[in-house]
Amino acid sequence: MTHDEIRAQVSHALTSVAPEIDPASLNPSAPLRDQVDLDSMDFLRFVVEVHTRLGVAVPEADYAKLTSLDAIADYVASRQ
Amino acid sequence: MIEFRMPSLGADMEAGTLVQWLKQPGDALSKGDIIAVVDTDKGAIDIEVFQDGILDRALVSPGEKVPVGAPLATIRTIGEPAGAVPVAAPPAAASTPAAVSPEPGSARRERRASPGARKAAEELHVDIASVDGTGPEGAITREDVERAASRRRRTGREGFEGMRTAIGAAMSRSKREIPHLYLSTTVDMTKSLAWLTAENETRAVERRLLPIALLVKAVARAAREVPEVNGFWRDDAFRPADGVHVGCAIALRDGGLVAPAIHDTDHRSLDEVMNGLTDLVARARAGTLRSSELSDPTITVTNLGDLGVETAFAIIYPPQVAIVACGRVVQRPWVSDGRIEPRSVMTASVSADHRVVDGRRAGRFLAAIERWLQTPELL
């Protein structure tokens, strides 16, 4: 899977949790939680969606690494 | 013959608009079945029946707004002939009887849908035949179903203002009529979080627990110990509830909030509480809550910690008599066994109705929550 394909799947995972988000309007390198209203339940659902779509299970200890769309895509790419 | 009436989904609800019938005349009904979707100031709600029987007649058509208590349909018991006289006459002028029919334009169509889409349609009570597919060759995807469910919820200024009006009415009434007392304590969350971290390391992603699940369960166990905080103020007297049904405040993405219940919270495992929370959040935001989930909470929990709030004191949602609020977990110096060490702590507060409980009982309730959070393995 290419980096762009991973990014697209990450965006789908995000919109499945928060349908009102337009991923194209997000700055991919800026902190995600500064741009999107995600509470802890939303974030867990997002991590579950990433696992379902991309087969990467993110341990809780790594949550802090999932700061931006770019960081999430990089994280997933490094574990596929 | 039984009259099925517009239910009250909270002290502030006066009327609802029928959106859709989900059962047809002649359909068998079991207790808990969803019979209709009703639009309220809290959004679209799935309305359940509370008796077995057969749907006899619909008395209200989609689009009609009727007051709480007005008959929506007649239900006959098994073996009862059709057209029997209902048990009670309608309290308001009866609407023109309407045949129950599917939504216009929702004629059944054979559509291709992914297994995930069918599962989502079942979970979110969406008629899959009415969903527009965006997948290959028009196939319906899970996202299509979730979008359709979202659309059922009223959006835009009208829906937002309606919910703000309802919240404003309930909170004004609460502050006007209920003599609130407020207590708070700092809870050492170190053991709970350590237990949670170790527990989650053994779990698959989709089975992980969040701290809010521990808090909700701890509140339920504490409410069982101090039953004066679990119930309703009605007719100038406290009515203790039969069960502990913790309402969980959920912020909606376009503004407003709802607080549906996890039924019998004190008897549920942490996994069941977590699954219940996940399910309620998804359905609250999709507009597919059930009527009993909104009408049954006996005490409410609100968590503002995700927003960075350290301390919150909430307003009681009448006719309930108590609400618990918690803030974010922060690292603070803590004295333990004569030594100062960093600990993860959280401020928890209770707002209680002073007509029902005094500070001592409310304090005992708060202490019980704190005690349960020191033994997460027992929750």
What's the layout of helices and strands?
The complex is a heterodimer of chains A (80) and B (379).
Chain A: H1 3-17, H2 32-35, H3 40-54, H4 69-78
Helix pairs in contact in A: 1-3, 1-4
Chain B: E1 2-5, E2 15-21, E3 28-29, E4 34-40, E5 43-48, E6 53-58, E7 65-67, E8 71-76, H1 115-124, H2 142-152, H3 156-177, E9 180-188, H4 190-201, H5 211-225, E10 231-234, E11 237-240, E12 246-248, E13 250-251, E14 257-258, E15 261-262, H6 270-286, E16 289-290, H7 291-295, E17 299-303, E18 322-326, E19 330-336, E20 339-353, H8 359-373
Parallel strand pairs in B: 5-16, 12-17, 17-18
Antiparallel strand pairs in B: 1-8, 2-4, 2-7, 3-6, 4-5, 6-8, 9-20, 10-11, 12-15, 13-14, 18-20, 19-20
Helix pairs in contact in B: 1-2, 5-6, 5-8
Considering the chains and any ligands shown, give keywords for the structure:
heterodimer, A: 80 residues, mainly alpha, Non-ribosomal Peptide Synthetase Peptidyl Carrier Protein, Chain A, 4 helices, globular, B: 379 residues, alpha+beta, OB fold (Dihydrolipoamide Acetyltransferase, E2P), Dihydrolipoamide Transferase, Chloramphenicol Acetyltransferase, 7-stranded mixed β-sheet, 5-stranded mixed β-sheet, 8 helices, 20 strands
Please provide a written account of the structure.
The complex is a heterodimer of chains A (80) and B (379). By secondary structure, chain A is mainly alpha-helical. Chain A is globular, with a radius of gyration of 11 Å. Chain A has helices spanning 3-17, 32-35, 40-54, 69-78. Chain A has a single domain, classed as Orthogonal Bundle (Non-ribosomal Peptide Synthetase Peptidyl Carrier Protein, Chain A). In chain A, helix 1 packs across helix 4 (69-78). By secondary structure, chain B is an alpha+beta fold. Chain B folds into 3 domains: 2-76, RNA polymerase II/Efflux pump adaptor protein, barrel-sandwich hybrid domain (OB fold (Dihydrolipoamide Acetyltransferase, E2P), Beta Barrel), CATH 2.40.50; 115-152, Irregular (Dihydrolipoamide Transferase), CATH 4.10.320.10; 179-378, 2-Layer Sandwich (Chloramphenicol Acetyltransferase), CATH 3.30.559.10. Chain B is built from 8 helices and 20 strands. Chain B has helices at 115-124, 142-152, 156-177, 190-201, 211-225, 270-286, 291-295, 359-373; strands spanning 2-5, 15-21, 28-29, 34-40, 43-48, 53-58, 65-67, 71-76, 180-188, 231-234, 237-240, 246-248, 250-251, 257-258, 261-262, 289-290, 299-303, 322-326, 330-336, 339-353. In chain B, strands 9, 12, 15, 17, 18, 19 and 20 form a 7-stranded mixed sheet that branches. Chain B has a 5-stranded mixed sheet with strand order 7-2-4-5-16. In chain B, helix 1 runs parallel beside helix 2 (142-152) and helix 5 (211-225) crosses helix 6 (270-286). Chain B is globular, with a radius of gyration of 23 Å. Chain A binds chain B through residues 12, 15-16, 18-20, 37, 39-42, 44-45, 47-48, 51-52, 57-60, and chain B through 142-143, 146-147, 150, 197, 200-201, 204-206, 208, 210-212, 251, 253-254, 277-278, 281-282, 306-307.
